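Consider this one:
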Amino acid sequence: MEINTKFLELACEKAWEYQGVTYPNPAVGCAIVKNGTLVSCEAHKLAGAPHAEVEALKSAFLILSDNQTQKDTLSKLQLSHEIHNFLKQNAKDTFKECSVYVTLEPCAHEGRTPSCADLLSTLKPKCVVIGQKEQNSVAVGGGVKLEQNGIATLYMKSEACKELIEPFLRWQSGQFVFFKLALTMNGRISGGKISCDESFKLVHRLREKIDLLCIGGNTVRVDRPTLDARLVGGRAPNVLVYSKNNNFERSIPMFAVSNRDVAVSDSLEGIKDYNFVMIEGGAGMLAATKEKVSHYLFFISTQMSGNCDLNALDLSFKILHSRRIDKDLLVWAKRSDNG
C-alpha cells in the first residue's frame, strides 16, 4: 500500500486556516485520495459543524458520484447528522478505492455531531492514514473501531500534524496563549489601520472564541479601541489592560461594551485565570509577555511606511503556517530562540 505523506501536509495546511476558531474543538484537516490523486481536502470549520472527515467525504462524493440527483440532494445538506445519514445510505462503493488522510484520529463518540469512525467504518475506504492519535479520553478509540471493521489503519506520528494540534492540547491541558500582531513589511505597527478587512474579520472571529484579550496600555490610549467581535456578530472577550497607570479616559469605546469585564493592572498574573488568551500590543507587550506566549499570529500588510517600531527586539521564530489573506500575509509561528 503506497502512502504519500504530502496529503497529510495538505490536510494540515487546510486546517490551519481555522486554527483558533474551532474551539472548543481542535483544528483538523482531511484529504480524500483515489489512485494517488487528490479528490478533496477539507477542514473542520466551527464547533458543532461537520468534522473534517465529513466535509471531505461530502466534497469527494460530489466529485466521484455519477448520480446527479443524489449530488443535488447532498449539496444542500449542511448539518453533520444529515450528511452522515445520506452517505451511509447512498455512498455504497464510492470510496472503496480511496485513501483517507486525516490529521487527527477520527472521533469514536457521539457528541454534538455523530462519530466519524462510525461513518468511515460504514463507507469502508481502502485505508485511513492518521497523522496523530487522539488524546482526549472522550473521543479516543476511532482507529481501533476502523481496524475492527476491516479497514487498514496507519498511524504516522506526523510532525506537521503534531504542530497543528499543539494549540488545542495546550488549551486542553490548561492554557493556550498567543500574541497577535499586525505590521507593515518594514515593521511599523502603529499609526493607523494596517491590516485589510478580511484580516480584521478573522481577528474578530478569534476574539469571539477567546476567554481573555490582554492589551498594552499605550495601545489603548493611542488607538482608543473597542476590542469586540462586532464584525462577526460575536460576544466580546474580557479584557486585561497591562499598564502601570490606570488613567484611561472611560470614554474609550472598549469600556462601554456590555457583558464583559475590563481590568487594568500593572501585573500580568491575571492571565493565569483564563484558558484561551490572545495578547495584542506593541514592542513593549512583545517583550513583557514573551515568557507567557507559545504562539504568534502575524498579519503582514503590503505597506511600507513610517518607521519600524520593533528595532529593540531580538526574537526569532519557526514558521508553522503561512498564507495570503486578501492583501495580507498571515503567519502562525513559534519562538525558536527559547528552546
